Amino acid sequence: MLKEIGFVEVGQPFEGFLLIKSASKGVASNGKPFLTLILQDSSGDIEAKLWEATAEDEQTFTQETIIKVTGEITQFRGKPQLKIQKLRPTQPTDGVKLEDFLEKAPVEINELEERLTQVIFEMENPNIQRIVRYFIKKYEKELFLFPAAVKNHHEYVSGLAHHVCTMLNIAKDLKRQYDDINLDLLYAGIILHDLGKLKELSGPVTPSYTLEGKLLGHISIMAEELAQAAQELNIDGEEVLLLKHMILSHHGKGEWGSPKAPILREAELLHLIDFIDARMNMMNRSLEKTKPGEFTDRIFAMDNRSFYKPTFEK
Amino acid sequence: MLKEIGFVEVGQPFEGFLLIKSASKGVASNGKPFLTLILQDSSGDIEAKLWEATAEDEQTFTQETIIKVTGEITQFRGKPQLKIQKLRPTQPTDGVKLEDFLEKAPVEINELEERLTQVIFEMENPNIQRIVRYFIKKYEKELFLFPAAVKNHHEYVSGLAHHVCTMLNIAKDLKRQYDDINLDLLYAGIILHDLGKLKELSGPVTPSYTLEGKLLGHISIMAEELAQAAQELNIDGEEVLLLKHMILSHHGKGEWGSPKAPILREAELLHLIDFIDARMNMMNRSLEKTKPGEFTDRIFAMDNRSFYKPTFEK
Amino acid sequence: MLKEIGFVEVGQPFEGFLLIKSASKGVASNGKPFLTLILQDSSGDIEAKLWEATAEDEQTFTQETIIKVTGEITQFRGKPQLKIQKLRPTQPTDGVKLEDFLEKAPVEINELEERLTQVIFEMENPNIQRIVRYFIKKYEKELFLFPAAVKNHHEYVSGLAHHVCTMLNIAKDLKRQYDDINLDLLYAGIILHDLGKLKELSGPVTPSYTLEGKLLGHISIMAEELAQAAQELNIDGEEVLLLKHMILSHHGKGEWGSPKAPILREAELLHLIDFIDARMNMMNRSLEKTKPGEFTDRIFAMDNRSFYKPTFEK
Amino acid sequence: MLKEIGFVEVGQPFEGFLLIKSASKGVASNGKPFLTLILQDSSGDIEAKLWEATAEDEQTFTQETIIKVTGEITQFRGKPQLKIQKLRPTQPTDGVKLEDFLEKAPVEINELEERLTQVIFEMENPNIQRIVRYFIKKYEKELFLFPAAVKNHHEYVSGLAHHVCTMLNIAKDLKRQYDDINLDLLYAGIILHDLGKLKELSGPVTPSYTLEGKLLGHISIMAEELAQAAQELNIDGEEVLLLKHMILSHHGKGEWGSPKAPILREAELLHLIDFIDARMNMMNRSLEKTKPGEFTDRIFAMDNRSFYKPTFEK
Amino acid sequence: MLKEIGFVEVGQPFEGFLLIKSASKGVASNGKPFLTLILQDSSGDIEAKLWEATAEDEQTFTQETIIKVTGEITQFRGKPQLKIQKLRPTQPTDGVKLEDFLEKAPVEINELEERLTQVIFEMENPNIQRIVRYFIKKYEKELFLFPAAVKNHHEYVSGLAHHVCTMLNIAKDLKRQYDDINLDLLYAGIILHDLGKLKELSGPVTPSYTLEGKLLGHISIMAEELAQAAQELNIDGEEVLLLKHMILSHHGKGEWGSPKAPILREAELLHLIDFIDARMNMMNRSLEKTKPGEFTDRIFAMDNRSFYKPTFEK
Amino acid sequence: MLKEIGFVEVGQPFEGFLLIKSASKGVASNGKPFLTLILQDSSGDIEAKLWEATAEDEQTFTQETIIKVTGEITQFRGKPQLKIQKLRPTQPTDGVKLEDFLEKAPVEINELEERLTQVIFEMENPNIQRIVRYFIKKYEKELFLFPAAVKNHHEYVSGLAHHVCTMLNIAKDLKRQYDDINLDLLYAGIILHDLGKLKELSGPVTPSYTLEGKLLGHISIMAEELAQAAQELNIDGEEVLLLKHMILSHHGKGEWGSPKAPILREAELLHLIDFIDARMNMMNRSLEKTKPGEFTDRIFAMDNRSFYKPTFEK
């Protein structure tokens, strides 16, 4: 069986299918053009150079193309590189699908859908329930495909829904410790808080920031969408105001992108649960790739810390 | 003629009409109730105590009532206080009007209206022009009455329109130095940037923060209003996106309340012009009350600095 | 029935038993000595002045004495004050007990003990289990009486154990979301993290900081105690090192008092759960005293924010 | 006609004259020496390598020499590089002049001189006028040649005078909005504020920091020069003190290099106008090189932001 | 013998001579004027009220007058206050002198003079020596009378010279550990670094900030004086540049008022020795007033810390 | 005689013995393995590549091996590199010793031992003296071999003892200026403050951080050791508490790794003396390698400053 690219070792040969994550042209010191390709499967990615690239190559080997490649794993400035010996684009008969080359949430989409349906069912406040239903319907497709971010945490297919569902579970559990929590508000805040990412990011595969994303950001995008939804649904209670506040304040403070700090218990909790799930996701995925008794790579979004995996963990 | 309350001196008698800015009840150590009144005219305000206040007093002397008062200026913990000898509410025959007791912009409302009309007339981009017209019409009354803030700068009747018109003048002048400026964008940004204050604040007289103001803030309120206006007017060009960005970014950075820092030349300029006009307003009004060769009171919003007035100024 | 001191209103008479929280002597402008007493029951506290206090008064009305007092609620500088008409120390026949005048955790001590016993029973790692047992035994009395802090959060009798038990419950719930968590480490970290407070604070009633607390702090005190326990129990595995790290890092970063930031998943989680429970405790107790549609007092330890209670909450 | 070096594209041949901005020697892995040259004309610069450089080459191709070069534009690590095929130093018969290879202010020197003369003429305060005249005379040559900085803003020939003149224009315009401004003080502050750069920097071509610049900085250098000028001119009024304060405080605060924050209205304004002109210069020059619908390179001195050029700009 | 005002206790009578540190007029609630006096001797100060003050009192009891007073120590808001029973200005026959009422350095002026003379004698670099001699001569009187600051450290008569001499001793000792130190530079930097205070402060008795002090600060004042001295003495070596740098950088960084951070070994050392002597002076003087086993008052300039005096200290 | 590696120049041949500081394997673009060696003697280090390394080479040329090497100094990306022509491991007959290749303190070990012995002899407090003796005995070997840090300051053999002895000398000198200093406490604090480094670092040669060092840090390690020592020695006075505080607080504040800021005069002084000696060590060693009239390399741990060496220094 073929080895995944995230687990090859320097010196080994490689043969298999890979997705082109990005392709950029350069001109070598001998004056000949070459392509720098980042190739990926669901386990990770690797850099490769295609020397003396023809004009045809340039048109063939573009972003989001799947290729068949034979080569060897070498090392360049301390990082593995794939030395290409042979490559070709895939053909229909190869039977490979884009989604097989993307990292995915560890939970199936239909499970995530079920969890959301159930939560909406549990809501008691009809205004809040109608607003949440409106958005689930509006984004029924993207919501279950988009990542939660371009990098750092939950940056994989279905990452957004995975993030939301884990947060919903934590919220439900916290209600048992702190009975005063208004679960309708908290559930709705969790489901809506990051929906602006569906417009801030370009798509589920090789996502980047859109112009709207750069100029407005997902927080303001979603606050606006919520206002329009409430108008359309003809809902005007205090709930709408509170949900807007929760979206605006979920990053916790100005330095982190929120125009208002939380001044509602459920807004503060939304921020804290978001914080926990993002950090657990980053730590867990780093620790998975780390051997007992060793340290993870530095995690930039966690103050560049490197975490220790105890010798008695597996 | 009667002296204004902002210019009385300790030891002098006082007789005249004053507006109650706030009234709060206390109980003295002898167990009797009393009222603490903040009394103002257009020149400033002063504290006064109404000892042994009856239930009737309490109902008569409330916020925004105008009274006739006779007394003497004393001093309490280093600050002047009005010792009340006689007081009564005004009668129709007194012929006094609320607006005479409020600080006002040094420019008349109709001049401010004319300036705005002229700027809109100069605009070339029809989308931008229609959006601005929409808001001028929507808020034709409040826009010319509201202050620009509860405190710090332009905190007087018509303060918002005064702030906007000065900024428009500066923008026009800067265009002569930097020809690349898109004046339509900059003008529109200036006119719209603080309109959210019309909902963030409670009104032109004795303004305070509304619930919406505390939970959302004027920046997000206005971004949402702009989205609704564009939808209503059926305008969907890049201009709308850019104007939203200008509103969101006009405080310059996250710590100062903007969810996005400016990444458009005209957004950066809007922020800088806003900064200059706010600071000039604070400095000028403080220096007016200061004698040559002395220092102003500390200005909290300018890092608590105290400014020097040269001996050769008048 | 007698009203509690936390719920009296200005103008009302008061008669009942109160505990002296602090007593300090002053000399009035007439040259006579007086006592400033802070008087409390389990619902809150109030200031009172005992004018013209005799030397005998001074020896009678000292900290932690319970008194019977008759008086009236007046107001001084915006805060309620108890005007004393009559007072005397309690007699055995009054049948009052110190503990009735102290705020207490909303959970009974035996419930807290049971929860801890059960958690220790669930532990699988024998080294960790033995260490935890050692401390539960060592502090079997204080652990269930001390507050978790002098002020801010869980600052009431049994506050420390209440804080620990809520955190344990949250930890157990989070394990269901994140299966990789080492629950033995996390449980132990939660139980041990604040035990240094038993030496940092002077006691469960009117607690203050000890000299040791001021010079070393509860974090270093506990790290040292853990080292001694491990030596005594003859345990020397990696678990001891990790538990020490968890104690040292539980404040999250240097500015907040931790000499090391967390670099172990369970240490990071310990910090986050501590953060959540402290914040929920502060918000909930402030919101309880707030009417729907109003804002709480400012909470100093939460960046001085004031939280909103929605109109639809009870 | 020859293409300018700032506008060539990878893959194109190049032939023309270029100025050596810097030259440094290295030794290649084959043990042979080579030269790294940064070559510029008034449109930009490019790196080039002269392999197997002889001792004579080293003495010929030095900083500020103009050369004739033939070659090809290649790419090295994502940046264009000039592959040298032929090169020689210029000869008198080539008819090229140093100034043709330097970036220059978009305004002619005599226009800048006229503007300054006119401003001095408008001054009413004789002390201030004499001091300004003194410095214009003292530095009549350098003032119109030096850049305003080594990098970031106005870093071109005549940049300092260009910066000063634009600021003077803005000051004059602001006076119309804020009549209280003392224009003599403000004009003088603008003209003098950066004159210390004439000693802080090494010269108008390829400027670097002098030893005096590194140890004292242009702010303290100029404060000292002003003191000496006042002494020489026998002027001792408050104006001298205020002008010194304006120079010392024009960076706005300690973190930005000013030993005193502005506590004079005109000092604060000087700082704000300086801020605006520096930022406009950086944004405008970056946007000029950017196509509509795209973002500029990151501007380090503006918090590393990248600015958007609207699609409807030219 | 008379007790000193810094050591009286509440309830005691007081009779003696005191210096008026400041006098300010108020109007009491009964409409009568009164004077608030701060009275001091060399041990400390105390507040006193002179009720129903006549116009004559106001002219008699002014700042820097010495009075004879009889009264009693009472307490007002937790601080001691002197209740005046009798007071009169001193007469020639009282035989009291201003200097007896001021706190003084613990070392005699002639000792300080000798120490400085000796250090100058040890200098080997003639340029540095001449500059230092110039300033010692120029300020031969003030240098030995002024305090080193208005508050915080060495804020007593001869405080500046005391600070300088202690620093010189430390410098000499450090040379034994670090032989590379250039002692001439370091000695000169120490002697000159704070001389700007002679113009920044108003005088040795009840010092306050001068206008020049507020607008320029002692660092820039002294840098300018040094430039003028060098010109007058016709000295132009690198030594002058380095001494200027040492003066400019002695506060260590921008936030602390230095326009340049130290980039010369002796400049860095000057900063560090200044830091040590200031902190030792603050701690020692606070600890002197503290009993063993107790904590000092909070020291504002040391991050508001309160220091512990061990039980085994005397 | 052979030149030391810290003083070779590009283009020169090299022949001599060097110690392998680190060795790491790579794979070249031709697929062949190579070794990157960092080679050092007591004067500095240099990088070298061993191309086409065999499996035997890999086992032979490992960290802490001494080799004989012939080659030439070339330059790679602006840094010198040793081009290996011949190399072999040393033989017994070469007569070279590991210690000759390590940087060492400029003072001999026996001098450092004597200094410590003498200081202990001077101590008057028996508890403090016994504790210090205990640790000198416990670490009699490591204490005189370990560096004070992995990098930055005193990062050489015997660096820790050198650092301690210089600090002791400074402490003794400061006592002459500030007689109130408790020299026993200060001496003990200096000797003990960094002993935790003996467990935080892996050893005197090529030191790195241990797991214990990363998880606990030398401050907490030493606080724990001190507690155990006191228990073993049966000492329980306030001295132990104060010494623990001094160890915990010697980094000065939370951001710098101390869980408590100093609140004892001797703790503050310990911090300041540590600060001075670390900074002097960094500056002096950088300036030694710098020519008069030039600047040192940037010193990262001193805010990245580069220091000037006056032209009149040698």
TrEMBL record, chains A, B, C, D, E, F:
Signal peptide: none
Gene (name only): yhaM
GO molecular function: exonuclease activity; nucleic acid binding
InterPro entries: HD/PDEase_dom (IPR003607), HD_domain (IPR006674), NA-bd_OB-fold (IPR012340), NA-bd_OB_tRNA (IPR004365), YhaM_exoribonuc/phosphodiest (IPR050798)
Residues annotated as domain HD: 163-279
GO biological process: rRNA 3'-end processing
Key words of the record: Exonuclease, Hydrolase, Nuclease
Classification via PANTHER family: 3'-5' EXORIBONUCLEASE YHAM (PTHR37294)
Pfam families: HD, tRNA_anti-codon
Domain of life: Bacteria
Protein name per its UniProtKB record: 3'-5' exoribonuclease YhaM
Annotated source species: Salinibacillus xinjiangensis
